[in-house]
TrEMBL record, chains A, B:
GO terms for molecular function: hydrolase activity. InterPro entries: AB_hydrolase_fold (IPR029058), FrsA-like (IPR010520), FrsA_esterase (IPR050261). Pfam families: FrsA-like (PF06500). This is 2,6-dihydroxypseudooxynicotine hydrolase. Belongs to the AB hydrolase superfamily. SUPFAM superfamilies: alpha/beta-Hydrolases (SSF53474). It comes from Arthrobacter nitrophenolicus. Keywords: Hydrolase.
Length: 361, 361
């Protein structure tokens, strides 16, 4: 099995905006073209298309094409742990920065500095009179602020602003700081930023994290009382299940931990990603989406039920779902977007829910 | 080869909004579930989801889910020529009618009667102060007004209204009138409707037709002087190439012609779909999109170059394109949407273009 077969989740890529035709092209590419080169070349093509569009006054299409380019650069690099990784990352950052002002609504870059480390945050504000609720979106192990465009759009369509950034071990912050146990500090820095913006409602800021970001979201919600809602989308509470990880995922943990061996990586992430000590502190509505076929074992749900205060819990267990339930199409994403709307925009008080749980009940 | 393998174009389905996960589910479905039942069941599921969403005040998601349901019903029926066909068609019509008011912007139904035949037209108006240009969208051999949602959105995003309907042999009109050589009459009835709406600019109404609709678009533009622009998206000028059609497509021609034999069908559609006699009458900017790998032979491009007045021509020949260039992803759609913007919104006078032609030049 080639690395791309191990890691490639077509459902995820398509839902995040990668073109089906480009994925078919990647799968069927000539042998002499590498995976990395295929996607990087495609990123160049999309960028050239976009430049032509800008020259013709077609900004909307240009933005769309630059997002496609950025996603190509993302998927070029994410399988590798050599110089290709940073090359693809840098290209993705560059392409997204070019796309940002052309998006509808545009993504505005705020250049924060946290503990002396530059931390760009992109904020998108929906149309209509504000102030608006906001959703802070957290990337995962090999995902970054540039990838949540489609999910952002669902949130924006429902009248909420979005904010994305890279934390320790991710994207632009990776060179300054490896994966660490204090991600919530950076989430809080974004809350600081948002509460300072007139267009944002200070009492209606949520956090939504996917995969590893779902771990960060839980810890951020537990440690940051200003957060009004939390979604852990395919997240986890701890890394007790390390042995179940695929070889490539273990290698990814090692890479973002900046250590030499898998054993060092195991120890580092095990300590950094422990949240069980803080989960009982959660005081905001908390949405847990878990797929039974996720490599994160079902025991995570037990942990959540044990530790997250029941009155705040909205638990959804999908019996057919894979990691992050990407294989279920748009429906889980609509569910999360509508839940955020209910909590942040409509201000509904939701009763605790357990959908699909117990799984045989 | 199963019928679905012959007809199924994954690129088309995904770009029109079918979920990738649903397509995988169709491909991998248990043997005892038929193609028809798979999609019709899924339509029911999406509808139930949508009803739940409406009850919760989540109209945006409900509209999205009902569009998914309508597309499922479309792809359930389009391979069959027995009672399944009308069953799926009727279901699609019903689901779309339910979706229409929930879409953003909504689709408003106008119940026209043309020559005593009921002809519903759905109009979607973009946000912002009008009056707006409009694009009339024509379905094809087995496609109807319910299927152009995604293309409509690209046009609406660029400040143009959309109008969709079924003509002879299509969707709701099929029971009253088989495929015929006077489709342009029905296009003109929609122009009548649009010119009577205050929100529409009478001098900026275009027609866009896909596949067989691309043939209808050409004839409509030739015969209706009020049309300000025309796009023939994977269309054709005539059916001289009948022998190249697949068995299933020939059967489809027979079905919509309401005749008993393929030879009768050949004769009927050959006469009905001839446009060469009127192409020289075209007086508006006309965009021809053709893929070299289309089953419609490249000689169509020669015909266009011979007969459509050169000063109105915007010819795009994609050397890697299949029928309607569905395999090229979103790019051809963005090109068409931006061209419509240039002609109708920006009022640009475009110079005649020949992109990708001559193919070896």
């Amino acid at each position: 099995m080639k690395p791309e077969d191990e890691m490639l989740n077509w459902g995820r890529l398509i839902l995040d905006g990668v073109s089906y035709s480009d994925m078919v092209g990647a799968r069927d590419r000539p042998k002499e073209i590498t995976w990395f080169d295929y996607w990087m070349n495609l990123a160049n093509e999309y960028e050239q298309d976009a430049e032509r569009k800008v020259a013709l006054g077609h900004d909307l299409s240009a933005g769309e094409l630059l997002m496609s380019a950025a996603l190509c650069a993302q998927y070029a690099q994410f399988l590798w742990f050599d110089e290709r990784r940073q090359k693809g990352q840098a290209r993705k950052v560059e392409l997204y920065q070019k796309a940002a002002p052309l998006l509808s609504p545009p993504a505005e870059r705020h250049d924060l500095v946290v503990d002396g480390i530059p931390m760009p945050v992109y904020v998108r504000i929906p149309e209509g009179p504000g102030p608006h609720p906001a959703v802070i979106m957290l990337g995962g192990l090999e995902s970054t602020k540039e990838e949540s465009f489609q999910m952002e759009n669902l949130v924006l369509d429902r009248g909420m602003a979005t904010a994305t950034f890279d934390g320790p071990g991710q994207g632009e912050m990776f060179e300054h700081k490896r994966l660490a146990g204090d991600y919530e500090k950076y989430t809080s820095a974004v809350v600081d930023l948002l509460t300072g913006l007139e267009t944002i409602r200070n009492d209606a800021i949520a956090v939504l994290g996917r995969s590893l970001g779902g771990n960060y979201a839980l810890k951020s919600a537990a440690c940051e009382p200003r957060l009004a809602a939390c979604i852990s989308w395919g997240g986890f509470s701890d890394l007790d299940y390390w042995d179940l990880e695929t070889p490539l995922t273990k290698e990814s943990w090692r890479y973002v931990s900046k250590v030499g061996t898998l054993e060092e990586a195991r120890q580092h992430v095990h300590a950094a990603l422990e949240t069980r000590d803080v989960l009982p502190q959660i005081t905001c509505p908390t949405y847990i989406l878990h797929g039974v076929h996720d490599e994160v074992p079902l025991s995570f749900v037990d942990t959540v039920l044990d530790l997250v205060p029941k009155q705040h819990l909205h638990l959804v267990v999908e019996k057919d779902g894979d990691h992050c339930c990407h294989n279920l199409g748009i429906r889980p994403r609509l569910e999360m977007a509508d839940w955020l709307y209910d909590v942040l925009v409509a201000g509904k008080t939701l009763t605790p829910t357990m959908k699909g749980w117990p799984i045989n009940g």
